[in-house]
Amino acid sequence: MTIAFPSAGPVTLRTNLADYPITRALKTGDVRSDLVGFDFAGPKVAHEGFKPMVREAAFAAGELAIVTYLQARIYGKPLVLLPAVVMGRFQHQCIGYNVKAGALAPETIEGRRFGIRSYTQTTGAWIRGILQHEHGINPAKVTWVIFEDAHLAEYRDPPNVERAPAGKKINDMLLAGELDGAIVGELPHDARVRPLFPDPEAAAAAWAKKYGTPPVNHLFVVDAELSKRRPDVVREIYRVLLASKETAPQRGGIDFHPFGVTALRKPLELITEYAFEQGLTPRKLTVDELFDDTTGTLEA
Q1: Domains in the chain: how many in total?
Q2: What is the pLDDT of residue 196?
Q3: pTM for this structure?
Q4: pLDDT for 67-92, tens place per residue?
Q5: DSSP letters spanning 156-202
Q6: In whole angstroms, what is the distance from residue 280 CA to residue 270 CA?
Q7: Handedness of CA 248, 254, 257, 262 (dihedral sign)
Q8: Per the domain annotation, does 6 fall within a domain?
């Protein structure tokens, strides 16, 4: 689907953007623009809109998981990144194991079977990178059991990835001991499941201090043609996103939503490296090629 944009004047963009503290002011209209309006037509769960965004150009703007964007860039999808994080969090708390597998630690999971919604899920890419670089694990020596396809139709999973039986659910398999462990948004509150990192919050804080950045999950993207034809609109989108962010409180003194190319250079360098190492992209993308002439100049 090709999206047509007016060459001048106000525009309204079909947008996929979930409800977060930093987007609340934009979505309620407390932060607004005379130049750009948003038709928030995406699903309530943002990641359900990622596949139609990259496969069908269903949205002219919105959030996208960073690994999905890296793959979209590789496969020539007409999207361009803004240096604006709309969803960020620590990741260490998202991996756990069933005690039936024995007492596991980050250094001992090679040869095990871990579930994850999709091998390309950004949370999984961060956690596998952390396991590899901080704990010496080779992610290719773990069997990753997936439940969904990648957002990009062109992508093929590596050989250490297998599909869960039809109808199975990740938490059910984890609790039943059919998986040794899993990467999920929130671990089940069940005595059979323990976090892989004994103190996930402390481990995550130490990682963020070491690298000078938290991980980043979802960033804002726009249609590449819009950025080419209407740089004024793209700069205005960035302005209102930043203004909306500034109305939300920070969590624990850490900025989980960095804005600007300078602030994002380190986390983007890390995730492009992890993506290449894990076979998510066939080459390592550079940070600068993720942006265009307009978005690559945006700073907080």
Answers
A1: 2
A2: 98
A3: 0.96
A4: 999 999 999 999 999 999 999 999 99
A5: ---TTEEEPPTT--HHHHHHHTSSSEEE-SS---STTEEESSSSHHH
A6: 13
A7: positive
A8: no
